[in-house]
């Protein structure tokens, strides 16, 4: 019996899987072990934690039921931006201005800190700074988008409202107003997660796979974690970084999991929009677009509540067609034919 829900997290081959990545050293769990911190999950979240914890001098073990970086991380579109799915103006209405603006500012600071850390570690993960264009849509029309821009400026964020004529002139997108923001980054998530884990391993972290955690017992000195193989890992601290495979202790009413679909085009660097900002919409569901370092276009969206893997996968041809059509409509100069 696992402590987290089993899910087939992705379908098909993502664009990031087309390139070789230096593998993360990992070992089977064949004996009892002890550590300062046990991290359950060897994706991007577990990798970030392992790197930081080992940098601070902690002894770390990372476990996963899959090999490292084989869950949902290779399917991430990696638009690393501080913009939240809930507009600041809407969040302020729900929880108050002080809390909402603080959340947005902290998100901005987190992206800035991540950028600096990746740069300081000299990780080669196709890291690039990117602007973001937040287009008007059915959640925020043009007047509401202006109000949202004013709210973000009031919170101290560097943003600018662009009329449709400026959006068309600067970026080749017709008929849409936008908020332009800075301070975002793009990366190859598979290379980034692998590099972070390898850095942690060089500092002494141990990555174990396949390991299925079946039980957690609190002790006077920390936790005893039992695995499906009948072995125990004793740790002073435990971090669950299981991503979309939510731990069963998380109340089902407190969150929802959705499916999203994404395509990546052929390489076409000469057809890309100027300065290649992230593009996404104030809509529900929203379309989101980014370019890769080698000139492909990644387009995603069409989110729906997750039902099961078979239902999700059955929709792949239809969703691919819709994304291709919407990408071509928004950016007519792009060859929207999917390569991934």
Explain how this protein is built.
- With about 350 residues, the chain is an alpha/beta fold.
- About 30% of the residues lie in helices and about 25% in strands.
- It is built from eight helices and 14 strands.
- The strands form two sheets. Strands 3, 4, 5, 6, 11, 12, 13 and 14 form an eight-stranded mixed sheet that branches. Strands 7-2-1-10-9-8 form a six-stranded mixed sheet, with helices on one face.
- Strand 1, helix 1 and strand 2 form a beta-alpha-beta unit.
- Helix 1 packs parallel to helix 6 and helix 2 packs across helix 3.
- The longest helix has 24 residues.
- It is globular and about 65 Å long.
- The protein starts with about 30 loop residues before the first strand and ends in a 10-residue tail after the last helix.
- The mean pLDDT is about 95.
Strand content bin: 15-25%
Described by strand count, sense and barrel closure, the largest sheet is: 8 strands, mixed
Query: Which residues sit in consecutive blocks of at least 5 with pLDDT less than 50?
Result: none
Helix segment count?
A: 8
The level of helicity is 25-40%
The geometry reads as: globular
Structural class designation: alpha/beta
What is the strand tally?
A: 14
Radius of gyration: 21 Å
- Whole-Å distance between the termini? 35 Å
Mean pLDDT: 94
Compressed to H and E, one letter per element, the order equals: EHEEHHEHEHEHEEEEEEEEHH
